Amino acid sequence: MAPLPLGFAPPSLYHVLGVDDDASDEQLRAAYRRLCLRLHPDKSNATGQAEAAVAAARGVDHGGCEGGGTSCAGADPPLAPEASARFHEVQRAYEVLRDPRLREVHDRERMLAAQRAVLSFQDELDLDEMDECKEAESYMYDCRCGDVYVLPKRELLAVTANIALPCATCSNHILVRCNTEAADAAKRQQHRGGTAAHG
Fold first, then answer.
1. Which residues is 176 bridged to in the sheet?
2. What are phi and psi of 145, to 5 degrees?
3. What angle do CA 22, 28, 34 make, to 5 degrees?
4. Neighbours of 124 (CB within 10 A)
5. What is the three-class DSSP state of 6?
6. Fewer beta carbons within 10 Å, N or C terminal of the chain?
7. Is 137 left (phi over 0), alpha (psi -120 to 50) or beta?
């Protein structure tokens, strides 16, 4: 995942579909179908033609557009560019949110962008750039305030990609990328250790 600039928040795909962030699969599907019926190019053109036919039947004058206007009888009203763009935006949103893996990635990116907007990151690094402290069962990294960032190994099991780690003393944070090979190996080791302890 490419780093997002500080303060950048990607648009919410939930907002595109008009649903809450915790919407169920059924709610997503219903919102998608409703929007498709309204925005689909075939539906939009049919609606425009029907409106033009009604206007023509009523003898409404469209200012001498001679059949070339978007609301005149006999014209094939083009789909408004905004409606077409919106239709494709809705399709993309649904394709992402209906896939649990892609939805998780989208949610994580939004959360990280929100954190970037309000947190001060001293550094961004991979897990293997931190110092491993076997006695404390954690990874550590020096903060510019003189204290350290501490990431307990047990917390790695719950992390799927990145984590915003606060300093123990000041308000600084670092962004630790935990989706590297070293992080995966550390998670496997921690999982084996936890399993052995419970066995």
1. 125, 163
2. -80, -10
3. 140
4. 12
5. coil
6. C
7. left
Bridge partner list, 150: 140
* Amino acid of residue 27: Q
Cβ contact 131:141 at 8 Å? yes
DSSP codes, 60-112: ---SS-TT-STTSTT--PPPPHHHHHHHHHHHHHHHHHTSHHHHHHHHHHHHH
Return the residue matching tokens 């750039």: 129
Sign, CA dihedral 119-115-130-195, equals positive
Residues 6+ apart with CB under 8 A from 161: 1, 105, 108, 177, 178, 179
Cβ proximity of 177 and 164 under 8 Å:
no
Q: What is the pLDDT of residues 35-82, one digit of tens each?
A: 988 887 766 555 554 444 545 555 544 444 444 444 444 434 445 677
DSSP class of residue 34? Answer: H
**CA angle at residue 65 from 62 to 59, to 5 degrees?**
35
Residue 150's H or E segment, with its range, is strand 148-152
Q: Do residues 67 and 75 lie in contact, with contact meaning Cβ atoms separated by under 8 Å? A: yes
pLDDT tens readout for residues 139-179: 999 999 999 999 888 877 666 678 888 888 988 889 888 76
Q: How many CB atoms lie within 10 A of CB 107?
A: 15
Distance of CA 13 to the CA centre of its chain: 6
